[in-house]
Each structure stands twice: as structure tokens, then as C-alpha cells.
Amino acid sequence: MIGADEQGDIRRLCERMLDENWRQGLRREDGLPFGYTCPSPGHYPWQWYWDSCFAAIAWRHVDPARSRVELGSLLGAARADGFIGHTVFWNTPLHGLRRHTYNVVGDHPLMTSSIQPPLLAWAWLIAVGDPRSEPRIGAQVDWLERNRDLDGDGLIWIVQPDESGLDASPQFDPVWRSRAHSRPGFVTLVHRNRRLRYDARRILAGGGPVCCEVATNVLYALSRLALGRSSLTPAIVERMYDEASGLFAPLARPHPDGRIPVTWTALAPLALPDLPEPIGHRLVEQHLLDPARFWLPAGLPSVAADEPSFQRDDAGPWRQHRYWRGPMWVNATWLVWLGLRRLGYLEQADVLATRTAAAISRSGLREYYDPYDGVGMGQAQFAWSALILEMLDPAPHSRHATLKAWIPTAQTPSGSSS
To answer: For domain 4-392, which CATH number applies: 1.10.150.20, 3.30.559.30, 1.50.10.10, 3.40.50.300?
Structure first.
């Protein structure tokens, strides 16, 4: 269990970091006001879509008004057709080598032309209120339905590994092969997709690859539920659940070149409030609680520890190879923790929260952590690691805790508005 003194120290650490990472101003081009939490000072100066959603959820424990400003800034950056990019640059222009590796179209982009996991509506529900009261939130989901649902079943597809937010995860190695995020050919993928303007149908027609990724669709499904739209959980189960292994796995076109490694995303559907309980219990008891795979001493690894692609701090010659290739990330841990609590594994949820808090107490709010000893890695002062505040305060007032009951019972067919 987490002691009161340790909880107080962590809360103060989170409050200080969130305040120091806060950026606000007026956009030079049109005077549009903005305010957001940069993921980490220096290396991550801009507003990243899913980072901001997680930061807004953390802000509700510190200053709820900033939750609304944070998410409102994403909406302020939205195009007229509802699209919101992976990264919004505001008054810090894209420069240096990032001009060659970021997913931008045009000479002076205000944001990228790629997406990130679309959890804005769900974050709004948790941190602000009813997302149906803000039409621009529904407009983003409408854009995704029109442009990224390639099969008409509601599930969305990504055109690059980083659209999942999971960048160099080994689950993408068999899909993008030499052009995966951790490999030199990634730059050629970026430039090909720039030419095709990140149009998923054009990219698929040109040979792909495109990927229907599990965690991306889980977060999208949560946003649809928050808007009162039909559940995507049946489609996620039907298309991505493997009964033989009891795990979820991504889809890809063309078919992946080899076996897809087991990563934390195989467990991500635990966050769905309407995941069938037998599947949830199997995910927990057969996989999550296995000490040789996911139930490691200091936290949830981003890759199953018995996978050949699992890496720790000292593995690999290039630092970026560790991104999502083994270390524990707090946002992934929180999503799995939600599932543990929903399914009644309260003792195990407390253990996971305690291990995560111990890593933060040891190393501060880092980008990711070694799942064996809790040593912090990556960038310091990392914003979404403040999600530990959610795990320290599992009170029933959380709107996610009652999401299934909150959603209207009358829902429309998959792919259409309520």
C-alpha cells in the first residue's frame, strides 16, 4: 500500500511538474488563445494530442479549469472538417531535423497531418463534462469515421507506427519491416505518406501498409461511448481477439511479415467497460498476472518479458530502440489498472498502483521506467506520468468508473451518430 507521506510527496511532485510544463499564449497567425502542458521541457515543446488528453485527466486533480483549457486548445487547432493532428506547433515552429521526420504537409504547417489515438471525447468526459455539449468533439469522430474506417465496421486504421503513439513498439516490426519507426527506412515512409497526404485509402491502394491497432481502437471506442455512440467492443473482439491465445492482436494490410510480438496492447481492451467479463478474466489471470510475462516487480512492461524483442535500459545501441520495447509507461499501466478495478481485482490493482508509485518516488516523473527495478528513463518531468494521481485516488466519482451506465441505452448502428 502507498503510505500517506508518499502520496503527499507524489502529489506535490505532480502539481509542481504540471505547473512548470504549462504553456499558454495567443497564436501569432490569428490571435487564437491556447494553453497546454508540454510533455517534457526541451525535447517535447509542442502540444501532442494524446499527451494533452492524459495531462487534462491529471489536471482535474490539481486545477480542473486547466483541463478545459488544455482540451479546448486541441479543439481550437481543429480544421473545419474536424481533423485534429498528432502535434500542434502553436508559436514554436517546426525546425531542424524534425522538418524531415515529422508528418507535415506544406511549408508552414500549424500541426501535423497524422493522427494520434483519439481519446479526446473520453478525456473530456472524465475531466470536464459531457462531450456531447461540444460539437467539435463529435466532428473529430465524424472525420475519423469518414477517413479511417476502411471496412465499414467502425474500427479505424493507422498509416504509420507513430499514429498509435507507440512509435517503435515491436508489434509494428512485421508490419512496416525496414520502414518501422525504429529503423532507418522510417524517413522514406514519412516522405511517401507526405506525397499521399496521409490519406489512408490512397496509401492502402498504393500497397500500404496500414494497421488496425488494438490500443488505438480501444481509446477510440471509449471516446465513441463517451459521445453516446454505438460500442465498438463487439468489432474489437470479433476481429482482433484470438481465442486460442486469449490475447488481442493488430490487423494489417498487407499481411504481416512474420509473427507479431505480444505487447501490453494485447491487454488494452481491459479498459473497455463492456468487454465481456470471461475475456477480461482470462486476460488478467492467464497473462497479466504471469510473473514471467507482465507481472514484473516494478511495473507493467510494454512488451511481454518472455518476448525476444523485450529490451531493458542497457539493450540496443540506439536509445530510441527502447521506446515501447520493454519499459513501463504510466499511461498504459493506468489503462490496465482501470480494467483490474472494473473486474474486481482490487488487491492486484493496488499492487500495480504501489509499484508505479514506487518507481515515481525513486526516479521522479520520467517518460518510462525499468519494469524490474523502477529506474526512470527517457525524458524527465514527463507530463502524463502524473496519471499516477488517478491511481492514488480511485474514488467512484470518476466518470469512467460508471461509463457503461452513463451511456444512453438507445444507440445507433456502428459508424453513425446518435
So the answer is: 1.50.10.10
